[in-house]
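subagent[fold] <- orchestrator: predict structure for attached chain, return tokens only, no commentary.
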Amino acid sequence: MVRMKVKKGLTLLYVMESVPAEWSITSDVSSGIKHTVASIEARRKMVPSHARGDGPLEIAHLLFEIENMTSAAVTRRILWQVDSNGKNIPLDEKRVVTEMFVTLRDIRAIVPLTKTLELLNSAVLTGAPVMTPLRLLVVDSGGQMTEIKQGALCHAADPTILKVLLP
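subagent[fold] -> orchestrator:
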């Protein structure tokens, strides 16, 4: 269990497993007068055959929302506390403080790029599945482009129409 404590103005919106087949994550957010506390519990569903040693693991992606940005760039402090369910962890490893540097970007467009000229699902007509790699770029008001490499999701109401393969 990991608890994060932040001052008002930084809100945890979403928690997503890095590898959904390997991890199950639940979260709970409670807001107080001065602080917001989020508890994130990660449970391993299975140990993969390619499991690494005792090194760090990427477990989840967190999406935050910043409120009341008074300037183009701000720093927000997050206090993390690990509850190890009775395992003996040194005190200096149980509590960690991080600072998040946040810049305000005025996003003007999200641009999909493909190697083909059209995105037409001809599998319905031919019976042969069509695979088209898709890259997403974000363009801000200053003209800066950034590729979205993680956290991009695509879905359709009918899963037979669109199937997403993650790298």
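orchestrator: received. Logging for downstream: The first strand starts at residue 2 and ends at 7. The chain has a mean pLDDT of 76.
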